[in-house]
Amino acid sequence: MRKVSIFGATGSIGQNTIDLIKRDPSAYDVVALSGGQNIQQLAEDAVVLGADVAVTADETRLSELRAALGDSGVEAAAGARAIVEAACRPADWVMSAIVGAAGLPPGLAALQQGATLALANKESLVTAGQLIMETAQNHGGRILPVDSEHSAVFQALVGEDMDAVERIVITASGGAFRDWTLEDMARATPEQASSHPNWNMGQRITVDSASMFNKALEIIETKEFFNCSHEQIEVLVHPESLVHALVGFKDGALMAHVGPPDMRHAIGYALHWPERQHLPVARLDLANIGALHFRAPDPQRYPALRLAHEVLELGGHAGAVFNAAKERALDAFLDHRIGFLQMADVVEEVLSQLSPSHCLKNAEMSLDTVTETDHVARRTADTVIEQLA
Ligand code: NAD
Ligand code: MG
């Protein structure tokens, strides 16, 4: 039996992971599940899966979690530190599906104990790519991408040499506002930004899809994961979300990964890697679909894409600055304090204020330096937001 843990178990990726594990429970020995506010879901899954421990991120809800677990024998724990402790418990395969920078410490802890890390939490690579890749290398751990585009690239690269790769193309659906004018985007509400045409995901990544901050994070994630240059990374708008990524080789071939917009494919690929096993996802009927569409993203409507390339040119802790500023700008947009397009203004301003001090190439990187940069960037973002609002 494989020992598995799932961090962010109550979220969209976490629940899709649990769906796969529940289909074959005798194959897995569940060590730890973590969640946030949805105590009932966390407790129910922990009991059904027979987890050793269930952890909520919210320290004030420990007694509630304990009560929900009843006499099941599942241990209860709470708080950020308890999540890291749970990630230190030996496991063969760990799903990192917490949203935001909070996913980094447990991901690092899982790699330090030698686990294979299925990485949905792209923010880990954006904020601390160098650190997380080195940690995996130094402890014999492995990282498998779960983001659909990165899983697609990973699959297209099986048996290939990175030296033969000319470019990596990740696709973007364009999110909720792909056909909106700039003027309409400026007035967009959080409610409008929170519905995705193709994917069913958590609210934060859904809004990030509408602004393409999600794609910006993914550009950085691509660079960190595949160790290519940022000039090799392209974004292509593809409204159908069926081609997830393409890899262009030096002989002119383009290998495309085509599949249904169902995250259980990428999660299942990471779960069964290096094998392929049956997955409960729809089979595409391309004759019925008929046509696929592609277009270049509009740089004016999606400044986040340009900022991602700037971050990669800056290097050092620029990714941590970018992510933290983006998280605060997103909070402010969701609270109706700033407009949709102002999120990019906030991030750009924070980057320009902090780049002389925090984005130095070849700077030492540790969890402490990343955390410190994250805090400074959040404070700076809050000041910028106050001035704008
Ligand atoms: P979600 O909002 O549905 O779930 C997030 C999970 O993280 C929940 O379990 C929540 O309780 C937990 N969480 C939130 N804040 C936390 C904190 N501070 N500390 C500890 N736990 C916390 O998010 P999601 O859509 O499942 O996305 C999870 C991650 O996967 C994100 O990094 C996202 O970018 C990435 N991702 C998601 C999808 C998708 O289809 N949903 C696709 C690709 C990548
Ligand atoms: Mg993605």
Please give a structural write-up:
With 389 residues, this protein is α/β, with parallel strands linked by helices. It has a domain at 2-145: Rossmann fold (3-Layer(aba) Sandwich), CATH 3.40.50.720. 48% of the residues lie in helices and 15% in strands. It contains 17 helices and 11 strands. It has helices at residues 12-22, 39-49, 62-69, 80-88, 104-112, 122-138, 148-156, 182-186, 190-193, 203-211, 213-226, 263-272, 286-289, 303-314, 318-334, 342-358, 367-388; strands spanning 2-7, 28-35, 53-56, 75-78, 93-96, 116-119, 142-145, 165-172, 233-237, 243-249, 254-258. Helix 2 (39-49) links the parallel strand 2 (28-35) and strand 3. Helix 2 packs parallel to helix 3, helix 11 packs parallel to helix 14 (303-314) and helix 16 (342-358) crosses helix 17 (367-388). The longest helix is centred in the C-terminal third of the chain and has 22 residues, at 367-388. The radius of gyration is 20 Å and the shape is globular. It starts with a strand and ends with a helix. The site of nicotinamide-adenine-dinucleotide (NAD) has 27 residues, from helix 1, helix 6 and helix 10.
Main β-sheet description: 7 strands, parallel
SS summary, helix count: 17
Task: Indicate the CATH architecture of the domain at 2-145.
Answer: 3-Layer(aba) Sandwich
Radius of gyration: 20 Å
**Derived structural class:** alpha/beta
CATH superfamily of the domain at 2-145: NAD(P)-binding Rossmann-like Domain
The top-level CATH class of the domain at 2-145 is Alpha Beta
Strand order of the largest sheet: 4-3-2-1-5-6-7
The succession of helices and strands, N to C, reads EHEHEHEHEHEHEHEHHHHEEEHHHHHH
Bound ligands: nicotinamide-adenine-dinucleotide, magnesium ion
Span between termini: 54 Å
Helix content estimate: 40-55%
Uncertain parts: none
Strands, count: 11
The percent range for strand residues is 15-25%
Shape summary: globular
Reported by name, the CATH topology of the domain at 2-145 is Rossmann fold
Average pLDDT score? 97
